[in-house]
Write a structure and sequence with these properties.
The chain is α/β, with parallel strands linked by helices and about 280 residues long. About 40% of the residues lie in helices and about 25% in strands. The longest helix is centred in the middle third of the chain and has 21 residues.
């Protein structure tokens, strides 16, 4: 999820950045309409634009008018963000192509809801982004390098032989099971990183592999708590250690909504999310 924030106030962009990254997205920043078009020209995939009304060089209305006349950018949804909450300004922004409107000052919860509305994100999609963001954040902290994402098989039984396999049960609007698998070296590196950051030391000798997975899941939980945007995602999280693959043999209807692999150097983590009816 790539979102472009166009606002000449740095403080506002920082608030938006915190919300977007908390949802597992990436924020691009521009301080003017002119700069925004330059960024758009060099980025093929922008999912949403958060646009201020009052800016130097090119205000929000001028930006919308220019965007509306450009076939390349016309379909990108725009949330107008401004102190100007008068009805006529709102109508003008919608007529010029804005798909939603948010008045300053706004809360992080308000902004998150507007983003969800504008992108059509459901509970499943949003939870997937949260867990993906947690995995990427921990891997980047551990490796110090950028994490790449790729698709993997959507068959739950196709876990790489010899890899550790763990699960997290999420009780919320729907019952979801988060499946995370990784090789032993990756698990050890992640566990070491968690220990160094939280406890000031390395894992004790002879630590059990299920403890490694528990530590990893707990770190993911910490991230989810930190970035909780309070839009019906305040569900309890229950974590398990290493488990058998046939644990998920069930007659219940299930839908797999995420099947991704995250890589950074020699580290590899696979993430799958399954929803049960």
């Amino acid at each position: 999820m790539n979102i472009l924030s166009v606002d000449d106030v740095l403080v506002v962009r920082k608030i938006i950045k915190r919300v977007v990254e908390g949802m597992g997205g990436n924020l691009l920043e521009a301080s003017s309409g002119m700069e925004a078009f330059s960024i758009m020209a060099s980025n093929d995939k922008i999912d949403l634009i958060l646009l201020d009304w009052n800016m130097p060089q090119m205000d929000g209305f001028e930006f919308l008018s220019k965007k509306k006349n450009d076939e390349k950018y016309r379909q990108i949804p725009v949330i107008m963000v401004s102190n100007e909450n008068e009805k006529d300004k709102v109508i003008k922004a919608i007529q010029a192509g804005a798909s939603n409107y948010l008045s300053k000052p706004f809360s992080e919860e308000d902004l998150t809801k507007k983003i969800v509305e504008s992108l059509g994100l459901g509970y499943e999609s949003l939870l997937t982004k949260f867990f993906s963001g947690a995995v990427v954040r921990l891997m980047e902290y551990t490796s110090g390098t950028t994490v790449t994402e790729s698709k993997i098989t959507d068959e739950i039984t196709e876990i790489t032989p010899g890899w550790l396999f763990g699960q997290a049960l999420v009780i919320g609007q729907k019952k979801a099971v988060v499946l995370i698998s990784m090789d032993k070296d990756t698990a050890g590196n992640l566990y070491t990183a968690v220990c160094k950051k939280n406890e000031g030391g390395s894992p004790p000798p002879g630590v059990l592999m299920n403890q490694i997975l528990d530590a990893f899941f707990n770190k993911v939980q910490d991230y989810l708590v930190e970035t909780n945007t309070k839009i019906n995602l305040t569900a309890p999280f229950y974590f398990g250690g290493a488990i058998e693959k046939n644990y998920y043999s069930t007659q219940m209807t299930k839908t797999l909504t995420a099947a991704k692999k995250y890589s950074s150097g020699d580290m590899n983590v696979e993430l799958r999310i399954v929803y049960y009816s």
